[in-house]
Each structure stands twice: as structure tokens, then as C-alpha cells.
Amino acid sequence: MKIEGFQTLTLLDYPGKVACTVFTPGCGFRCPFCHNASLVLPGRAGAEVPEGEVFALLEKRRGVLDGVCVTGGEPTLQPALPDFLRRVKALGYAVKLDTNGARPDVLRALAEEELVDYVAMDIKNAPERYAETAGVPGLDLTPIRESAGFLMKGGLPFEFRTTVVRPLHDSDCFQAIGAWLAGDEPYFLQGFQDSGDLIGTGLSPFGEEEMIGFRSILSNFIPNAALRGI
Ligand code: SF4
User: What is the pLDDT of residue 44?
Assistant: First the structure.
């Protein structure tokens, strides 16, 4: 599998686990607030990390690390993802997958083969503003709806999460997201932070009070809605 970043230790990325994180290049979206632009935009690729380096660490850190996070970019675009995860699972690690939900077929296949233990799916925005927020004019939301529906119906632990950024979000967005995804799933609203490696410009974070207000709107539909990193 193509890997272009490897963080050997994270206490934050995988809830309740000590993990490492692998970053895969490429994504079909162009979210202006994407904080890994160099992984997403053509011609800005970094050095490839050999799979062998990852597996050498996983062998060595057995019993120290519990999990492996696979993030991107969009990992489900990698044809070799299932093979990679089979090897990770064979070493006894739990797997967390970050996805934008654009490949429900891959998500379903990975779940059926029990190659993932936890999924974090981005919900970019209300359906009416999804294309704009994903940076893809005319984006077909059918696969996104299918992935979200699969997670909400299935037995796989998961979370939804939204990076909240001005000027892409407002109160109406969270009213519409709540109506769309009402349920008892974990849903995190994350504040925008400028990583210095963004796709777009003209973005800024909301203040704490505004974030609390958005959570309050969402929690009318999704009682488990929470703020993260605020
Ligand atoms: S933030 Fe958007 S563009 Fe960046 S990797 Fe995720 S889905 Fe792709």
C-alpha cells in the first residue's frame, strides 16, 4: 500500500488506545480546510514510507501499541488496503479507519472481513452545502449517504465528525445535519486549526461560544454530539 507518512506513536488518534498512524496519499475531495494538502494535491507528494518500515515497528512494539490508525488522504482509494490490514490484523492490532465515506463498497467489504475495528467518518456539512465543503462541484452524495447509513445500521463501532470552519458552516447547517443523521451515534464537532498545509484560503475557526451553540443545535437530534479539542 502507498504510505506517505508514518507517526509512530499517538495517544489521541484512536480513542482509548495507544496507536501509530499511517497516512495514505490521494483523495477525491478537495476540502478547503484539509490540513494534509500535500497528501492530497498532485505534484506535492512527499517521500514514500516503505511498508516494511511500518511492519518492522509493529513487530517490535507488540504489547506496547494496541492499534493502528489508517488515515489520509482517503485510505479506501488504495487498492492494497485490504492486504495491508490483513497483515496488521495478523499481528494482533486493532485498526481504526478514517474515511470521507466516498467508497461504501470498500467500507462494507472491510467490515465484513473484520479488518477494521473502528471507523471515523467525516460528515463535511449539510447535504445542501456538501459539494461546496468537499470542494467538488456537483458531488453526488449517494455514496456518502450509503456509508453513513451502513455505519448507523451496522455493528461496527464508529463516530461521525465534522471540522467546523467559517465561512462553510452556520447554524442552519447543523439543523440540517441533525435532521439527516438523527440517532444515538457519537458525533464530534472539531474546531478548525490552520496546519499551514491547507488546500483553501480565507478560512477561520469559530469561537468557543459559537461551537457550543452548534453542538446544542445538533444535540436536539443527536444526543451524543460533543465538542472535541475545544
Ligand atoms: S479533508 Fe477532505 S480533501 Fe483532505 S483528505 Fe479528508 S476528505 Fe480528502
Answer: 72
Q: Is the CB of 40 under 6 A from ligand 1?
A: yes
Positive/negative CA dihedral, 200, 178, 229, 107: negative
What phi and psi, each to the nearest 5 degrees, are found at residue 37?
Answer: -55, -35
pLDDT in tens, 122-177: 999 999 999 999 999 999 999 999 999 999 998 899 999 999 999 999 999 999 99
CA of 114 to the centre of ligand 1 (A): 25
- The burial of 128, by beta-carbon neighbours within 10 Å (0-12 exposed, 13-18 middle, 19 or more buried), is given as exposed
DSSP labels, 125-157:
S-GGGHHHHHT-TT---HHHHHHHHHHHHSSS-
Q: From the CB of 30, is ligand 1 less than 6 Å away?
A: yes
Cβ(32) to ligand 1 under 6 A? no
Mutation test residue for ligand 1: of 76, 100, 197, the one with most atoms within 8 Å of CB:
100
